[in-house]
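Hey all, sorry for the wall of text incoming. These are the two entities for the joint prediction.
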Amino acid sequence: MINLLETLPDIPAVELEWMALSPLLVLLGVGCLAIVLEAVVPRSYRYLAQTALSVLAIVAALTLTVTNWATMPPSIVAEGLVAVDGPTNVFWSLLLVVGLGAVALFAERGFDGRSAFASAASTVPGSPLEREADRLRREHTEIFPLLLFSLFGMMLFASANNLLVLFVAVEIFSLPLYLLTGMARRRRLLSQEAALKYFLLGSLASAIMLYGIALLYGYSGGLQLADIDAAITAGTASQGLLLAGLLLTSVGLLFKIGAVPFHAWTPDVYMGAPTPVTAFMAVATKTAAVAGLLRVFYVGLGGAQWDWQLLFSVVAVATMVLGSTVALAQTDMKRLLAYSSIAHAGFILVGVVGAVGGGEGVAVSSVSSIAFYLLTYGLATLGAFAIVTMVRRSGGEANALDAWKGLGKRNPLLAVLMTLFMLSFAGIPPTAGFIGKLTVFSAAWVGGYGWLVLVALLTSAVAAFFYLKVVVAMWFQDADEDTVGDVESPSLWTWVVLLVTAVATLVLGLVPGSLLSLFADAAQFIR
Amino acid sequence: MNPEGFLVLSAILFVIGLAGFLLRRNAIIAFMSIELMLNSTNLAFVGFARFHGNLEGELAAFFVMVVAAAEVVVGLAVIVAVYRARRSASVDDANLMKF
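and here's what came out:
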């Protein structure tokens, strides 16, 4: 009798580089553990357990990332699926820092002892069940594992070296966000509507992206970014498949970044979501999406650069112009910050179009300048949304711009901090935002896109106008009794976020040199 | 093997899904249209896998199925929550926020 086992070929065991993947695995593992804790830890201890666990997990992942960054050479790991190189380390660190800030904002419950999240998200708004859950002070501590899963997906997205991993990662980080969006304590109908819109449009965008991925697979016969690069270099396969695939793939990525014409979800979702979630989405989703976009288009589709540079420059112009002009007309702080984030997506795309490769000794490269820009934008955004949670009226947030009038007289410290963040958004020295804009625009300039830089400068001027509108409202306009918002002092969580972001915004504006050169040294993708 | 037939069929299914998403007003139907788009992608993946003679495309189809199932879980939860609050799953009724 033939022994079946002997005739079968050997299947080699998959070898994983555990150390390189450890930041990802820590987040995923702790996320799963946190779900188990939900079932076994008594209700009264869950908040403490979950916040402590989330902070520990993120700090551990950050430590591992920095250790790997310092000790390990860039390498492609996990059977070629994940690339752990300079840009990956930079973006992982950025995402984890933002994640820490987000955990702090999520954990905030200093406003009459309640968090920004619904006590029971499954109850119908206004129903007796909801009031009952409220009275019993129930809360969803599942938000912390959801945050960890989302962060894990974003980090995987930023390091994906394979288009299928890219698609799976985009879903891993989006699905928790859809749920978190619908869990606001106040104005729950708005929040649920935002979740519905975000979910439907988000899954449409990822379906379109997936079709693009299928076409790129058809073009090159492989899902690895290197396969596509090799097929473009060989140039024998059908150009139609390449162009269609490139176009459809970019739709999904541009949607996540919030670029025009795929921006329509941004203002609604930012407005409806609980403010801590908005802050997390505004910074982390954008960072991850830009990181993924850079890797796909620089590594995988770098050979088709002439095709996508034109596409992205058109999108960048539309995004900057629409973002900054429509923001002028906004009267709600969260919507205003949403349009501001659209405008910033445009400025980031200006740097992407430049496509200046990095390496040892290259001072201006697209990747490092965009990473620095994302850091400055992220700091200002986290800080600004932290302040948004503090300006309140009759128990909820007062998001109307009218509520912010005269804030300078009522609470000068808060108004000074908000002014700092607005100046950083506008790119006015000596804030970090100025350095960010300077580096991104010079990357585009070096890349030969002077006209795009000119458009970006003009729209920056328009954008500065609406940031100054907020500053003027806070310092020079008198409050109206009917609309004025009171400043309520939160617990230590929000104060820490606020102070760290404010100090970092100032410090990076005054002495950006060491961080800029650190990023510049890590700007080269591994192929 | 010529993949053209499969590609054309998957493109037709994809466009039907896209049109369904854009035209239908019920959130469930819109969501079903997205599922149709995902399945059309699976067809394209499998067709291309056969054409190239490797397994990556067929593997991708399995991953897409799992992701689609996860998406259904989250999506239906959101849609049901909206329906219970408003007694309507029409995407036209979700209009509290504009511009």
